[in-house]
Amino acid sequence: MDGDELNTRKCVVVGDAAVGKTSLLITYLNGEFPEEYVPTVFDNYNKTVTSKVGNTYKLGIWDTAGQEDFDRMRALFYQGAHLFLLCFSVVSSHHDSFEGVKQRWKDELRVHGGDKPFLLIGTKIDLRDDPHTCDELQKSQLTPITTEQGRQLAREVGAEGYYECSAKKHIGLKEVFAAATEVIEKHDHKDETAVRVSDPKASTGCCLLQ
């Protein structure tokens, strides 16, 4: 197995439909925000990333459809994942995507994603101050999800951390994937430590009884 294969990691992006998953990825990868909304079924991208300590990874990023019609198919793409990015919109109507993290996605990741880590990502933060968006939320007596609410939700569902971004304004995108790289690296180290501890070759297994 060569070094490139050894350093390939899989990141799967999940969350309700229309929360901005595809916009997040395209803007991060290409530097341009896609003005036209095209619903994604499934897609994947590749990006070379470098951690703070200088380790380089070839990150395979998988974009998934959030509609329930794709539940069974989507779970197939979880196989071999090293990390999940669980996204919700801070301004979704009725807070649907925010509540869906607890009511739907947490269990789906636990069942189909195993014990792999995930980060919680709040998207569309530029719309927190948008008058029209705030007016629409106010009709349901709601306000945009705050940063502290996002952090609290991350703690409740066991996420490795909480990050916010705006694809349209190019805010926080690099930070999201820098955090993703650090989490992958941290869990790589944990896995290596577990192998060393459990490897019978690491110990002679020999003792002398008298």
TrEMBL record:
CDD domains: Rho. InterPro entries: P-loop_NTPase (IPR027417), Small_GTP-bd (IPR005225), Small_GTPase (IPR001806), Small_GTPase_Rho (IPR003578). GO terms for biological process: small GTPase-mediated signal transduction. Keywords: GTP-binding, Nucleotide-binding. PROSITE patterns: RAB (PS51419), RAS (PS51421), RHO (PS51420). Belongs to the small GTPase superfamily. Rho family. This is Uncharacterized protein. It comes from Acanthamoeba castellanii (strain ATCC 30010 / Neff).
